[in-house]
Each structure stands twice: as C-alpha cells, then as structure tokens.
Automatic annotation (TrEMBL):
Organism: Durusdinium trenchii
Name used for this protein in its record: Phospholipase/carboxylesterase/thioesterase domain-containing protein
Pfam families assigned: Abhydrolase_2
Family: Belongs to the AB hydrolase superfamily. AB hydrolase 2 family.
Domain of life (superkingdom): Eukaryota
Length: 186
C-alpha cells in the first residue's frame, strides 16, 4: 500500500521536474501522519533519480516498523529530515520516532528529531513558539542559500536586491500587513 503512495509521489515530482523546470533539490516534502510516512519512505526507497530533495519534514509520522526491521538502508538518499513528534502521541511513540531517526541516519540522511513533551499527534501548532522555531530554522538552514545561509547567487535567482541604508520606520501596522497571524489560522 505504501509503495503505491510513494509511486504517485514520484510521478508528481517527475511532473514538477520535467514540465515545470524545478530541480529536485529545490523540492521539500512535507507530510503529516500517513503523508509523513510516505515522505519518509521516499528517503529510504530505491533511488529513482540521482539527486535528493531539499528536505523532508514529517509531523507525527514514522518509518513503518516493517521497513525498519527488513530494510537495508544503505541505498537511501542523503536528505535533510526534520521529524516533529509528541511525547503524548498515542500513534507514534517516542521510541518509534527515535527508531525512525536512527534508520534514516543509517541511510545517510541528516536527521533532526524534535519531540515536544506537551504535544500529541496533532498537526503543526502555529501558536507554539518552540515548535514554530524548530520548523522555520529547518527551512532557513536548508533552502539552498536563501535563508540564514543567504548567498548572492540565490538572491540573483529570485530577483532580490540588497537593502541599503536604514530600515523604514513603520507608523501604522495596518499599512504593513493585513494578513492573519498563525494563531488566527489555527
């Protein structure tokens, strides 16, 4: 069953690469629950293409126990992986999350496991500062030069220009943004 999900995912990735011009290392896989399990399985599965993803983020997810027990992970991909799990998760225990992280590391992935003591099996909590920082730091560290590790090449690629001088003074916060905060979207 998971193999068919992984194959569908690879078909979607192939469309993005072939028809949309994306590079595979510019793509990030994000999954919650079973979707995270499928995303993690792409890291461990047989290589369909020579390069890896920009990263994989799995929330309340695990590498399936049968994959951990019967998989030689040496053929996996070198991919940055963020696992976000909860100590109170009834479906994915801390032990299962740690076993998943270990298997992914054996496959050559750079894995960051964040287990939050006050978290169950819910989706990302935008109001939770530590969880949000963990998530955003991962992106900042792995966006191929467009985050904290910014580069001139990446800035040229996205058409950004350096900001010179002092930052503008904001006099009215309503002028800055009318977007909803993460707390309002939860």
């Amino acid at each position: 069953m998971i193999r068919s999900g992984v194959e569908l995912l690879w078909q979607s990735v192939n469309v993005l690469i072939t028809y949309c011009g994306w590079k595979q290392d510019e793509l990030f896989l994000f999954g919650y629950g079973q979707g995270g399990t499928v995303a993690l399985d792409t890291v461990l599965g047989p290589s369909h293409t020579p390069c890896g993803f920009g990263g994989v983020i799995a929330v309340a997810s695990e590498v399936l126990p049968e994959r951990i027990a019967h998989l030689d992970a040496r053929g996996g991909r070198e991919v940055a992986v963020l696992l976000i799990n909860g100590a109170m998760d009834r479906d994915v225990s801390r032990k299962a999350a740690e076993a998943s992280a270990q298997k992914l590391r054996q496959a050559g992935s750079n894995v960051q496991l964040c287990v939050f003591s006050d978290r169950g099996s819910e989706m990302l909590r935008g109001y939770h500062a530590e969880e949000s920082i963990c998530f955003m730091t991962f992106f900042s560290d792995h966006l191929n030069g467009v985050g904290r590790k910014g580069s001139e090449e990446a800035m040229r690629k996205i058409g950004a220009e350096p900001v010179l001088g002092e930052a503008p003074v904001r006099t009215n916060s309503a002028e800055v943004s009318s977007a909803h905060s993460l707390n309002e979207m939860d």
